[in-house]
Design goal:
Radius of gyration: 20 Å
Strand content: under 5%
Length: 98
C-alpha cells in the first residue's frame, strides 16, 4: 500500500508547529493546517483502506494540530488581554490635576 501524502504532511506540520512553539511562536501557525490535512487524510484512508496507508501519521498530525491550535488560541487571548491592559494603563491619568 502507498502512504497517503497528506498523512506525512500533516504529521510534519504538526510536529514543526508544536516544537517550534517553544523556540519561536511563529511555527504554531502551521498547526491548524496540520489538523485539516490530518482530517482529510484520515477520511480518505478510511474510504479506501486497500489503497492508502498512514492512518497513524494522519492521527499524529491531527492531534498535534489540535493541541497546537488550542495553544494558539490561548496565546491570542492572552496577547489580546495584555494589549488591552497596557492600553488601559497607558491611558490612565491617575486622577491628579495640577
Amino acid at each position: 500500500m502507498t502512504r497517503h501524502p497528506l498523512a506525512k504532511r500533516s504529521m510534519t506540520l504538526g510536529l514543526i508547529g508544536l516544537v517550534g512553539l517553544f523556540c519561536l511562536v511563529v511555527p504554531v501557525l502551521l498547526c491548524p493546517f496540520a489538523w485539516y490535512y490530518g482530517a482529510v487524510a484520515r477520511r480518505e484512508i478510511d474510504r479506501a483502506p486497500g489503497r492508502w496507508d498512514g492512518r497513524n501519521d494522519a492521527t499524529t498530525g491531527m492531534v498535534c494540530g489540535i493541541v497546537g491550535s488550542a495553544l494558539l488560541g490561548v496565546i491570542v487571548i492572552v496577547g489580546a488581554f495584555a494589549l488591552g491592559s497596557m492600553a488601559l494603563l497607558l491611558g490612565f491619568e491617575g486622577g491628579y490635576s495640577k
